[in-house]
Amino acid sequence: MKIMGSEPTAFWVALNLAYRSVHRDMEEALKQAGLPSLRWYDVLWELERAPDGMRPFELENDLLFEQSNLSRTLRRIVGEGLVEEFTYAADRRGKVLRITAKGRRLRKQMWAVYGPQIENKFGPLADTEDADKLIAILKSLIS
Amino acid sequence: MKIMGSEPTAFWVALNLAYRSVHRDMEEALKQAGLPSLRWYDVLWELERAPDGMRPFELENDLLFEQSNLSRTLRRIVGEGLVEEFTYAADRRGKVLRITAKGRRLRKQMWAVYGPQIENKFGPLADTEDADKLIAILKSLIS
DNA sequence: TTCATATAGATGTATTTTCATCTAATCTAT
DNA sequence: ATAGATTAGATGAAAATACATCTATATGAA
Questions:
Q1: How many domains does chain A fold into?
Q2: A135 near B CB under 8 A
Q3: Which residue range(s) make up the domain with B20?
Q4: What integer is the mean pLDDT of A94-101?
Q5: Is the dihedral of CA A143, B123, B136, A6 positive or negative?
Q6: Over the stretch A115-135, which tens digit does the pLDDT of each residue have?
Q7: CATH at residue A80
Q8: Is residue B88 included in any domain, yes or no?
């Protein structure tokens, strides 16, 4: 019989705190620089890599967004002119999103802050061969 | 010069998605069972292990709570009779929190759902011979 | 075709979280 | 002792997120 303080719990607790700590610091750095949140970055970067645009529901899956949350986030992002919406001919319920030039510029500006943050936090670990193993494990947890 | 798709970024992306995916599922399971959120669990468990009670600011540090958020979360938790507040004689700005019998019962109920979730997700990994090393890496990210 | 079901996305409402600021108590240096 | 700075915690207002539901289109089986 497993007891509470066992290994799996320790792993989850560490994962939890690590994520939150890093996330908090990164949001802080972006805010400090007068830039939007990480969620916005994720959307912009995802769209920047999709030359033909993406559907909202694809973003939802890739980024683990709550549907209603994404819908409103997109409204704001589109409102800022960072992304454009087009009706999707093949399915008239849907739409297609494409990043704008302005969106690309902002994404790049954000990367200037975000990138170094990642480098600071994770650069030192990246050498460890254990890091690869950990990445694999982390990926396996995603459903 | 580092490019964007490099190792550290892969690590962070995996950490990010893993956390969110697991967290979402766990919250879902708790909600399904009509139980409060993980944040409440964290507070209750932390207090359960503190025989002499804890100060809010200690919880704030241990659980990476935003101060104002914790303040309100505590109001709700105390409102439900799960935790009691006492004035802290040695520093009259502060207070001491102690879990109640009701709080302990609820914490246990929650564990009946939460524990198995952890076991499901992380149990399989625990065999990894260097789980400890991976945990250490995660912990090293916490500031 | 037609009815039932499923999917894409929006939106009203409630809840949670953040941000900024406030009060009261404590601490520190003079 | 006292002025200034710091800390514990609360709170109004704003923003983000979640939940439930709704509309419109699409799909699939009879």
A1: 1
A2: yes
A3: 7-140
A4: 96
A5: positive
A6: 999 999 999 887 777 888 889
A7: 1.10.10.10
A8: yes
Protein CA at B107 to nucleotide C1' at D10, angstroms? 26
State which nucleotides on strand D lie below 7 Å from a protein beta carbon: 7-12, 16-21, 24-27
Burial of A129 (0-12, 13-18, 19+ CB in 10 A): exposed
Looking at residues A59-78, what average pLDDT do you find?
96
* Residues B77/B107, Cβ–Cβ less than 8 Å: no
Q: Is A6 on the interface with B (CB under 8 A)?
A: yes
- Largest Cα–Cα distance in chain A? 58
Helix (H) or strand (E) holding B25: helix B7-32
Quote the pLDDT of residue A6.
61
Kindly tell me if the per-residue pLDDT of A3 is higher than 70.
Answer: no
Give mean pLDDT, residues A38-52.
96
- Residue B122 forms part of a structural domain: yes
Residues of chain B with pLDDT under 50: 1-5
Asked if residue B46 is part of any domain, the answer here is yes
